[in-house]
Amino acid sequence: MKQGICIAFLLVTLSVFCSFDTTKTRLQKGVTAQDSLKGIDPETGLVIAKDLMLVKAHCTGCHSSKMITQFRATKEGWLDRIRWMQKTQKLWDLGEAEPAILAYLSTYYAPVKSPQRREPLQNIQWYKLD
Ligand code: HEC
Predict the structure, then answer these.
(1) How far is CA 79 from CA 60, 83, 95, 112, in A?
(2) Strand, coil or helix: what is 47?
(3) How far is the CA of 39 from the centre of ligand 1 (A)?
(4) Under a CB-based contact definition with an 8 Å cutoff, are residues 47 and 40 in contact?
(5) Which residue(s) pair with 103 in the sheet?
(6) pLDDT tens digits, 42-57
(7) Best CA proximity match to 30, nearest among 120, 110, 107
(8) Pocket residues for ligand 1 (CB within 6 Å)?
(9) What is the pLDDT of residues 16-43, one digit of tens each?
(10) Atom of ligand 1 nearest to the CA of 58
(11) Best substitution site from 67, 86, 87 to test ligand 1's pocket, by max atoms within 8 Å of Cβ?
């Protein structure tokens, strides 16, 4: 009887331990396998690279860094979001940090091509059905 309780206790501990482990290694949404090769900052889920500290300082005060990892855009797209936050969300002037932040964002959070979808067709020759 005591042995049974002991085994049950061990199983519960083991499963709790294992579930902790998987949440730690699971990729955050928006992070591709390639990003993970570069290393992910455990605090924010952001790619560890040059100017990560600038991005952390300017971009994680108001909202979760998931706002960044779940968004992907070109440099123009990121600038557009920054201007929008400055106009409507009281984001401050990024000053000299802006080019570095934009370079970081558009490098590591650039639009991704989905492997599940083919490219849109181009130069389609439409014809009338009779
Ligand atoms: C002063 C506060 C503030 C700071 C600092 C801030 N943001 Fe935001 N941001 C917001 C608010 C508010 C929203 C809207 C949140 C929502 O929709 O729930 C937002 C939304 C976003 C979104 C989602 C936009 C969309 O269209 O879905 C992205 C991406 C984003 N922020 C990136 C950044 C980046 C990159 C930085 C650093 C340059 C930054 N934020 C700094 C306030 C801020």
Answers:
(1) 16, 6, 13, 18
(2) strand
(3) 23
(4) yes
(5) none
(6) 999 999 999 999 999 9
(7) 110
(8) 58-59, 61-63, 67-68, 71, 81-82, 85, 89-91, 94, 101, 105
(9) 565 554 444 445 555 555 555 569 999 9
(10) 37
(11) 67
